[in-house]
Fold each of these.
Amino acid sequence: MKGGALLLAAALVGCSSVPPPEAEAPSQAAACPSGAPVGARCLRGQDSAGAPYLIVMPASWSGVLVMHAHGGPALGAPKPERADEDIKRWAVTVQAGHAWAASVFRQGGVAVRSAAEDTERLRRIFVQHVAQPKVTLLHGQSWGASVAAKAAEMYAAPGATSPYAGVLLTSGVLAGGTRAYDFRLDLRVVYQYLCGNHPRADEPAYPLWMGLPADSRLTRAELAARADECLGVRRPAAQRSPEQARKLKAVASVIGVPESSVLGHLNWATWHFQDIALHRAGGRSVFGNEGVRYRGSDDDVALNAGVLRYRADPQAVAAFGADADLTGRIGIPVLTLHAIHDPTAFVEMETSFREAMRAAGQDGHLVQAFSDHREHSYLSDATYLTAFEALLRWVQRGEKPTPAALAERCPALDPAGGSGCRLRPEYQPASLASRVAARH
């Protein structure tokens, strides 16, 4: 059925709710948020679908527009401050002379296609009310990489006339929603087997793929306290009891994440799973773990006999996949960057994305580069400057980059003398199945 989700997603390419630009109000001049480059000019607005946005124009514009899709996703109503946070991180884009435009997306939660539509709607607002760019690029970070890739499938499919010239995907969640989050169900069942406090025995039981029941009042602080109670996640290693240390090591080893990332993933496997189950899947299960064999604990036999097991609902998988999975049908240059030791979005997801583009016959449009970093949210200014420069050379001059050329060029663009350049041109990630057990 996951293959069926890909077919349904392909059938939906081009179907969007983006109105013509004349239906959109002009942007309004506004004070730039803290962290925007000195001399930049900022504009704000809210599009016709209710998505706030921020546009940042450099003092001297290169003519390049970068449409930025933020990570997350955030839950709840959209907040303009989300774009303010991102321009602090991505100020290097404007410092390079490029205009930067970011939608906060009209709805919170794991909704990829609507976020792609919001990104395209903002591009049209920019063209209609701000300026006509010479080149327009899509940039997606983390979960936003799946949004940017989806936008490229919708508006830059092979053979289509595309408003976008190229795509940069960084630290991307690129395995598709029906595959990228499987390990978080694994986390929930392994954690519950070892800790038994999410939910507690005296609380109403619910299937863990649901994240939380709709009426739950559990807070993030309360969940952190529970995880600390069992695993000692909020205290130094020396202060953990032997039992806490044993269980934390088991969880991290079985799931394949650093111990420091367990609580963050547990949060996503709680509230993001709740959003997927209640708002994207009609209360049905998108994720299952039938037949999965867990390895890495001090007693795998007992673990596999004791964990809860769930079966994914095929219709829920297909519906969620139509929104969140990627077909690889992108007809313009795509450059990806990923930290080899990314603790949040596994680098092996890049292999899944390459396979999708190859299956679509578009892998000739793909270059993938990898860095020896351990961060997810940001690599280094020099790494992104190198990527943007290489992508622009590719789309403007036809000079397709290679990982080796990127690594060679990076030190010249690094104000820190090359210390931010850690590209590894020889690296190739393994399959996602080597990191996350495949589902039946």
Note: The chain has a mean pLDDT of 94.
Amino acid sequence: MARRLPLDEAVDLYLDHLKVERGLARHTLESYSRDLARLLAFLDTRGRADVDDVTELDITDHLVQLADSGLAPRSRARALVAMRGLFRHLVGERWLEADPTALIDAPRTAKRLPGVLGEDAVMRLIQQPPDTQRGRRDAAMIELAYASGLRVSELVTLSLADVNLNAGFVRVTGKGNKTRLVPLHAKAIERLRRVMEERAPRDPSERGLFLTPRGRPMTRQAFWKLLRGYARRAGVRLPTGDVSPHKLRHSFATHLVEGGADLRAVQAMLGHADISTTEVYTHVSRARVLEQARKHPRAR
């Protein structure tokens, strides 16, 4: 008789798989762990001890319980993702023959579209920094954040060794310590070359690309603050709030999709582990098309 797998052991094995083999970020692992701990507590009340004991009805009843407790649809959808990942993994490892979550639909959630800057607004923003050494550094950072879609944490931790201007790419270390190569366009290469020529660290061992006047690496908070200042000076605003590094990243992806870029290519440049994360930009693009259509003189 095949060995049965206790539920708590199965969850531990799955979380270990996500951490070691999938390289998920710490906060994502913590969210999955909380969601699966709630599932285990619910299944325990039903006397379910092993993975073979769990039924589709158990999963749907658990989702109903989460809704009754006031958990938002988005959080319930995330809980289902965690449960589905667990049982798919168990099927893949041959601990289960069938996935009890396979036919369960995710709770409906309102699609929150990220704030997106128009291309003219981005150009005004990049043109704001003055033609000084510090201003040229700022313009290069804004250019790179937009034109390569980098996360702010990826941007400020770039080192000299990550930049290959001759080949026209930067090597980026993203979530889960995964690296990817992101192409640079001609203007970004020109700005980065100037920054690298003028860069003067006080400590010769400092290898960071973007430095403060004190010769130390730029921080995420400092870049966000200078970006907000340039956006206000340029009169660039969003209905969803201040311009931020993350909204530059959203704008990069949306403009690529609107221009006809392949979604898989956009996924690779953004460093998304799952294509479903990138697909939000197809919805953003459609929303912007509808917005522009409503502004047409014949629509008034």
Note: The CA atoms of residues 137 and 195 lie 6 Å apart.
